[in-house]
Amino acid sequence: MIGDKLSGQDDAYREFRAARDLLLHHADDQDAARKAFRWPRPRHFNWATDWFDRIAEGNDRVALRIVGQGERTFQELSRRSDQVAGWLLSRGIRRGDVVMLLMDNRIELWELMLALIKIRAVVAPAFITISPEELRTRIGRAGARHVIADHRIASGLAVDGLGTRIIVGGERGGWIDFASSAGHEGGFVPEGPTEADEPLFYYFTSGSTSRPKLVVHTHVSYAIGHLASMYWNGLKPGDVHLNVSAPAWAKYPWSSLFGPWNAEATVVSMDSADATPQRLLQVLSTGEITSFCAPPSIWRALIRTGLPDGLPGLRHAVSVGEPLMGDVVEQVRGLAGVTVRNGFGQSEVTAMAGVTASSPADPVSMGYPLPGYELVVVGPGTDEPAQEGELCLNLADEPVGMMRGYLDPEDNATSHTPGGLYRTGDLARWDSDGSLVYLGRRKDVFEGPDGALIAPLELEHVLVLHPAVAELSVVPVSEGTAQVPKAYVVLSAGWNASRATAEALFAHLHKGLPEPKRVRFLEFVDDLPRTESGKVQREAVRRLRRSRSVEFAAGPPAALA
């Protein structure tokens, strides 16, 4: 059956494999990889049938392991996803239909992902913690026609207006039990070749600073585009890769689908309820995991829980999704003997820059541009190259990993420059070694009392180095007619929310930053508001009710010296 599905698509497979193998060959030489790499550009491509099914044929290596649930080989997933694809078609889900997917990390998720790719549906993931109001909004914005949901959320969903409603892991009146797919005997035959630019994913951006945008990715932009993500991570055939990510976060296809399986590595994942710091450390300590990807907040939780002396077998430790701070890198290196490396990408684009395993760049930097991407830094309001400014992606060579666009037309108007650049909305500067240093989101930067621009991330990088600080967020607050920086600080264990602690932090900042950029106010909080993907939601921090009775003001510089 696999051979029949692949007839006529051998060229796409060979082109993809050649590009993949070139990156593996140059795994330790990023310059050589950048010079030699060319994006595969097949006219037709369906990653599930043209790549996954091909590498799965006769392959009894483990492709997927869900901790506490079980595992599946490549061949088992290929055959099972065929069965699920045929079953979905029999239930009325068709090519081009938008399917709202609300799932946690369980084996059925990967079966469904492969099957939905095969039948050429459009997948619109959402978090299982989403509110009913937000779900209705997203269903409307995405134009969803069907819904597939974990039983833990399906029971509370009001989606009567949708066509096919599938429940996974349970039963509910009016819903189809996914378990019934195991009895489907109709087989699966693709409905012709898949056009490369057909939409495949609708991902909502995190919305950490504004209304979430709806990103459209195609059958090539994510599947082929994540060859760059695979390269940054350092994955190779036979690796065992553990990723911490909810399926609704765009990091999921990076690190739990396309990246590892492009490399023919094993994906390891955990249900969100099971992925506690203690449980993660147990899994990492088995010696089976060779690669681990987690956002900085997870790395911090592991440090607080107690990283062991050494993690046997772990070759790659990477982080993406939030700014990586030097204290995390130093503590993990000192305790576990591995260096956490930073990477940079967006929901709109796959990994564009990163610190690879052989890179001389600072692990907390953005590293160097990855193969297939040309990045430029431009000055304010121009397309002219600059040492420091907004990071942009040059679209002249049509990088494959770039989104097709935003679904809402008004969102596309401001994302591109007249000179053919995609504006990331992030600020960066070129370092002396040619690597990029991340300065924060453009929307987060504000003008201080003396007219100097203040990037909150720069202040956070200094303040987080004090042992009293577990986490923090710096935002502007009004002081008279001016905007000044205020830090909301989550304290480390053993520290008290006292004037003495505040003065210690102010003194620390006084030594590390010039006067115009020093935090003027501090407030200690138990936690910081976060997006569903775990990022600190700066817009929500800005909206926190300010109370002079619980904040500490900095004294004059002389008093803090």
Textual characterization of the structure:
- With 561 residues, the protein is of the alpha/beta class.
- The protein has 2 domains: 429 residues, Rossmann fold (3-Layer(aba) Sandwich), CATH 3.40.50; 116 residues, GMP Synthetase, Chain A, domain 3 (2-Layer Sandwich).
- 30% of the residues lie in helices and 22% in strands.
- It has 18 helices and 27 strands.
- Strand 13, helix 13 and strand 14 form a beta-alpha-beta unit.
- It is globular and about 75 Å long.
- The termini are far apart.
Properties at a glance:
27 strands, about 550 residues, single chain, nine-stranded mixed sheet, Rossmann fold, alpha/beta, GMP Synthetase, Chain A, domain 3, AMP-bd_C_sf, fatty-acyl-CoA synthase activity
SS elements, strand count: 27
> Can you count the helices?
18
What's the mean pLDDT score?
Answer: 91
Level-2 CATH architecture of the largest domain: 3-Layer(aba) Sandwich
- Strand line-up in the sheet with most strands: 2-1-11-10-12-13-14-15-16
Number of domains: 2
CATH homologous superfamily heading of the largest domain? ANL, N-terminal domain
Tell me the structural class.
alpha/beta
Q: pLDDT under 50 segments (min length 5)?
A: 1-7, 557-561
How far apart the termini lie comes to 75 Å
Helix content: 25-40%
CATH class of the largest domain: Alpha Beta
